[in-house]
Design brief:
The chain is built from no helices and 10 strands. The protein is an all-beta fold.
Length: 133
C-alpha cells in the first residue's frame, strides 16, 4: 500500500496542508507548507535543519523514507514512524556531478532495498572569439 497525500481543499493558495498516512499504523502526519508537501524543521537550539520531502513507506508501514531536497547531492533518510528517529541512508547524486542542479524526484522500493531518482543538470558552453575590433 502506498502513502496517501490529501491536499487541502483551499484553492489558489501558495501553500497547502497534506496528510501522510502510514499504511500499517493508520497514523496520519499532517504537514503544512509549500505545495511540494515538504517542510523545514528546527532542531533544539534553534538551528535550522534540512527541508524534507516524504518519499515512500516500506511495505510494513513502520518506516517512512524522506529526502533533503534542498541540498545537492540530496540525502535520503529512513524515519521510524513510531519513534520519529531519523537514520541517514544514502547520498543521492549521479557519478558525474558536473552541472548538477537538483534532485527533484525520489522513489524507494517497498522493501527499502532499491532507490530511483531523477536529477536536473544545467550545462553551458563558453565561446572564445578572437579578432574582434
Amino acid at each position: 500500500m502506498a502513502a496517501t497525500f490529501a491536499p487541502s481543499p483551499r484553492e489558489g493558495s501558495r501553500s497547502s496542508s497534506r496528510a501522510l498516512r502510514s499504511p500499517r499504523t493508520g497514523v496520519a502526519s499532517r504537514r503544512s507548507g509549500p505545495t511540494s508537501g515538504s517542510r523545514s524543521t528546527t532542531s533544539r537550539g534553534g538551528r535550522s535543519r534540512a527541508s524534507f520531502a516524504p518519499v515512500d513507506f516500506t511495505s510494513d508501514g513502520r518506516t517512512l523514507f524522506a529526502y533533503a531536497y534542498t541540498t545537492v547531492p540530496a540525502s535520503l533518510f529512513r524515519i521510524d514512524v513510531e519513534s520519529g528517529r531519523q537514520t541517514f541512508e544514502a547520498e543521492l547524486a549521479p557519478p558525474d556531478r558536473t552541472g548538477l542542479y537538483a534532485i527533484p524526484a525520489v522513489h524507494v522500493s517497498m522493501d527499502g532495498t532499491e532507490v530511483a531518482y531523477s536529477f536536473v543538470r544545467i550545462l553551458s558552453e563558453l565561446y572564445l572569439v578572437d579578432g574582434l575590433k
